[in-house]
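JOB MANIFEST
job_type = single_chain_structure
chain_count = 1
residues = 201
[input]
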Amino acid sequence: MYVGRFVVVGPEAGAYRVSSRSFPNRKAVDRDGTVTIAQTEDAPETDNPYVEYNAVQVTDRGVVVGNGSHVDPIAEKLALGLPARDALAEPLLAMDFEKDDYDTPRVAGIVGVPGDDPTTNADGRGGVIATVRRDALLVEEVTEPTLVATYEEDSPTPFDLAATDAAAAAREVYDHEFEHAVCSAGVAVDDDGATTAIYNG
């Protein structure tokens, strides 16, 4: 099954994967806690605004993952102290779904929301997942790994993520049976802070 780009979000671990039929010549680049999706050196030129973007941003209040330019304003709002749900909802509502031929949804989430936020669990961490599509804005707290994708799986649904560290999460989602894997990133949050990892196949 082809689900396009997707995020997996849990309270302590999560991941993002690029799956693409149209733009497979891309890679994940680690830039000191920020993971950028960029074109490979052999990629044909394109003016498509949805091909390159920051997909992972680490803040001191959780790690933001997502499929486009909305990741940066979500991270900014989270770092400014907005509750995780608001930090997700406001930029997604303002930017809306992608204005391409498919009305592609924007998907995003926050892993490792700290204990001072209303979304945290009994262990002191929380997760929130969200999507904006043509017909809805959905923002949900999660207590277990949850997936939302741009196609087919475009509502939050439980996902069996076994990985607990960033590198394993990146590899696990890349190897998942969903079709046309291009690259991935994993994130993990514990008492020592946040870690990220990339996998480019």
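[summary]
The mean pLDDT is 95.
The chain is about 15% helix and 40% strand.
exit_status = 0
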